[in-house]
């Protein structure tokens, strides 16, 4: 099977033992070129996750594996847009969710509450990824963003509230702890996007 990455081709045997070596090769090359993996195109099919299992499950049939990559700056721009769009959708929903917990949550309220927790986790993972890249961290003032997402104490409060079935405390936490930070983060991301538009316009 052929691995095609950044206009270079590498041959690997169609054996399970080749899969870790192939993925390590991808990681090494992208790291050296300050790029990150977007997705793989495997014999014409776009694969976006769980690469190792896909390769192992289809090892006998694989012919061409193309690596689609992007620069760190391109990835950061996309992630900032994604996070900004998420916050634009999320903030009104959280305002409504807080009201529902004051009034008495139903099953849908609890499902939306779980989605809120997943969103917090996604934002934290995103910030963690950015903080590992020094050039990106400086670009968006990562310390400032991390401060907005320092929600560990808040999450502990929520755990206690869930354990005690205290829906009023859950509502208070959403309205007075999470929403203000999300609104502040939204403003910061909007400022970053605006400055980038001005930068591109001046070039």
List the helices and strands and how they pair.
Elements: E1 2-5, E2 8-11, H1 18-32, E3 35-42, E4 45-47, H2 51-57, E5 64-71, H3 72-103, H4 107-131, H5 134-139, H6 142-148, H7 152-163, H8 167-202
Parallel strand pairs: 1-5
Antiparallel strand pairs: 1-2, 3-4, 3-5
Question: Can you describe this structure?
Answer:
With 203 residues, this protein is an alpha+beta fold. It folds into two domains: 2-62, no CATH class; 74-202. It has eight helices and five strands, in the order ββαββαβαααααα. It has helices spanning 18-32, 51-57, 72-103, 107-131, 134-139, 142-148, 152-163, 167-202, and strands spanning 2-5, 8-11, 35-42, 45-47, 64-71. Strands 2-1-5-3-4 form a five-stranded mixed sheet. Helix 7 runs antiparallel to helix 8. The longest helix has 36 residues, at 167-202.
Please report which band the strand proportion falls in: under 5%, 5-15%, 15-25%, 25-35%, 35-45% or over 45%.
5-15%
**Got a strand count?**
5
Strand order of the largest sheet: 2-1-5-3-4
Q: N-to-C SSE series?
A: EEHEEHEHHHHHH
Give the overall pLDDT as a whole number. 88
Low-confidence stretches: none
Please state the overall shape, judged from the principal axes of the Cα atoms. elongated
Radius of gyration from the CA trace?
21 Å
Structural class: alpha+beta
Number of helices: 8
Largest sheet: 5 strands, mixed
Number of domains: 2
Helix content: 55-70%
Distance between the termini: 42 Å
């Amino acid at each position: 099977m052929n691995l095609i990455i950044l206009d270079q081709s590498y041959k690997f045997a169609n054996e399970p033992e080749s899969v870790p070596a192939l993925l390590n090769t991808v990681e090494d090359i992208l790291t050296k070129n300050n790029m990150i993996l977007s997705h793989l195109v495997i014999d014409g099919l776009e694969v976006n996750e769980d690469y190792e299992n896909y390769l192992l499950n289809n090892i006998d049939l694989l012919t061409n594996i193309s690596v689609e990559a992007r620069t760190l700056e391109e990835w950061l721009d996309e992630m900032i847009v994604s996070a900004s769009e998420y916050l634009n959708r999320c903030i009104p929903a959280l305002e409504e969710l807080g009201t529902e917990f004051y009034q008495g949550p139903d099953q849908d309220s609890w499902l939306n509450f779980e989605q809120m927790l997943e969103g917090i986790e996604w934002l934290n993972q995103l910030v963690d990824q950015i903080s590992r890249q020094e050039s990106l961290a400086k670009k968006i003032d990562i310390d400032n963003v991390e401060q907005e997402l320092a929600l560990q104490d808040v999450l502990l409060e929520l755990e206690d509230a869930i354990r005690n079935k205290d829906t009023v405390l859950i509502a208070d936490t959403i309205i007075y702890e999470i929403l203000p930070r999300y609104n502040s983060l939204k403003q910061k991301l909007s400022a970053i996007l605006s400055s980038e538009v001005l930068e591109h316009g001046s070039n």
